[in-house]
Amino acid sequence: MVASLVCAFSFLVAEAEANPGNVQSADVVVWKDDDGLFHAEKREGIIYSSDQIDHVIQQAMNSLTPGRTHKEKVKVVSSGTITRYAAQSPAEALMIPSYTILDIPATLHVEIDENAPDGATLNKRVLVKARNSTHVDIPNINITGETGWAIKMESVSNVRIGHAFLDVGGWSPIRIDNEGSAGRSRDIQIDSAFIVGGNHAFETRGVDRLQIGQIIAKHHNGCAVLLNETDDATINNIIGYNPNATSNYATFRVTRNDHGRITVGGIVSINAPRGIHVHAGTGDMVISNIYIDGARDYGIRLSSSPNTVITNGVIKNTHGTAITVYTFDADPLPERTADGVSITNMRIYDDRPVGQRTQRYGITFAGQNGIIANNDLRDAGTEANLVVHTPSTFVRNNLGAGVAQGTVTLETGADPAAIVRGVSPHANVSLDLRARAYDAPGASFAWDHYFQYNGRRGEWDLVFEWRTDPGENLGIEYIVDQPLANLGRNGP
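Predicted structure:
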């Protein structure tokens, strides 16, 4: 034992010299001796020893100054294995009190006792927990193995997780919610997390003011990031790779926020069921710098998501529709509609062999007072690149699509030269034309056009007239835009 203590102190001194103020600044250090025994040690000496590292860590935190209003630190410098029953009570988790720094640069590996009782459930296990705590800091944490929640925080405030590596099974590796007695969690910061496995990699419910640097999730079965009832959130980057997922969850999903105010600076979603799903009354969001490839359902689905901005990105090779926007009829809050949604500067396409393309639509839009502009929709859908259902949607400058598009032949000697019927069913819209000749003749030619509303049929026709007839037929490619003459935000 004496030799082990000497080795341990030598290790602490060496690390302190390499990282001044790092280990030595810890109030309690948890380490393992040569005999496999774990110790919690303060400056005055060892305060607790056990062959179970979780017991030692808990005793280390319990030994910090009672009732403190300043942070004190426990650092775990030796890796260890924690063996647990599957039916373990959440109270047996490592409980972090207020004003505590729990730093775990070592690795905690969790195993299930082979003698776990029959019917034990995976989701009940929690490894690291904070409940009604404030001013909690986890600079580093590394967890592997089987655990329901690796980190679960309930009704906490002023929490920071620095760098987390979690390779676990179970439910949500990280969950922050309002299930304690102190109400909603507030002021949460996550610097970076790399998460392998689990269902929802990172999940919140009932959180105000959340800042995330980067979440990378791999081989999870649910969302990479799921925000429930969460307001005032900023996320720099989300990366999700889950080709084995059996659910319909999106890489990034948001639902039921009261006020919104959410920004996402970048999303990469590879082979997920969905890329992004903003659901049921959630709005006031900006999501930019998007790359979604191989979604097995929708690329982006916005339902009752007012004032949501989707901008700058690529969506390719989805199974169904790249982007769909609609009002969710079952929403119990009817004032929450898909009003004011903006989709700009997106490249949407399917570049698989023609017989293997399953991306039926590029964008289907049933929102109100929305904007669809400056998108490249060439080869966006096998059935249609763009489908717009509402007259209040601004549509302009989308390559390969508008509210109507196609080809028409201007007949020489005809008056009018051509009529395209039914380019829009809405009487209360303004329309604009983009057109070009293909296989142009050598002779001079010019045409003019106008839109004529047919009251009997209830639709607009596009009419072409010759200004200069070339003496032979002329093929025209056309796109009809819907730029609107809307002097008020809610006008038709």
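Summary: The first helix runs from residue 2 to 18.
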